[in-house]
Amino acid sequence: VGKVVSVGSDAYPETDSRFQHGPGCKEGDWVLVSKYSGHRFEYDNVEMRLINDDAILATLEDPTKVSRATA
Questions:
Q1: pLDDT per residue over 2-16, tens digit each?
Q2: What is the tens place of the pLDDT at every residue in 29-55?
Q3: pLDDT of res. 43
Q4: Contact 36, 48 (CB under 8 A)
Q5: Could you tell me the sign of the dihedral formed by the alpha carbons of 62, 65, 67, 71, in that order?
Q6: 48 contacts 38 by C-beta, under 8 angstroms
Q7: Does residue 58 carry a pLDDT above 90?
Q8: 36 to each of 4, 18, 51, how far by Cα in Å?
Q9: Which of 63, 32, 62, 66 is nearest to 49 (CA)?
Q10: Among candidate residues 41, 12, 42, the one with its CA nearest the CA of residue 26
Q11: CA-to-CA dists, residue 68 to 25, 34, 44, 71, angstroms
Q12: Torsion over CA of 28, 56, 25 and 65, rounded to 10 degrees?
């Protein structure tokens, strides 16, 4: 689970049929991504990731209700 801090200008192009209903997320949204997706880096002692728009699995209203599966 991560919070979107910025969406690049090349994200969710209108010509891409995968995003025909518009952007999947916007700045400030909480999103679900797979464990190994994106490129990890640290900025001002905070772990961040660069994630491609097609790697976002879902947007979440309440990230506190999400937990990692145990099985």
A1: 898 887 776 665 666
A2: 999 988 888 899 999 999 999 888 788
A3: 94
A4: no
A5: negative
A6: no
A7: no
A8: 17, 22, 10
A9: 32
A10: 12
A11: 22, 11, 27, 9
A12: -50
Among residues 51, 65, 58, the alpha carbon closest in space to that of 8 is found at: 51
What's the pTM?
0.71
Q: At 47, which amino acid appears?
A: E
Task: Specify whether the CB–CB gap between 31 and 59 falls below 8 A.
Answer: yes
Tokens of 43: 């900025």
More confidently predicted of 71 and 42: 42
Say what the pLDDT of residue 45 is. Answer: 95
Identify residue 48 by its one-letter amino acid code.
M
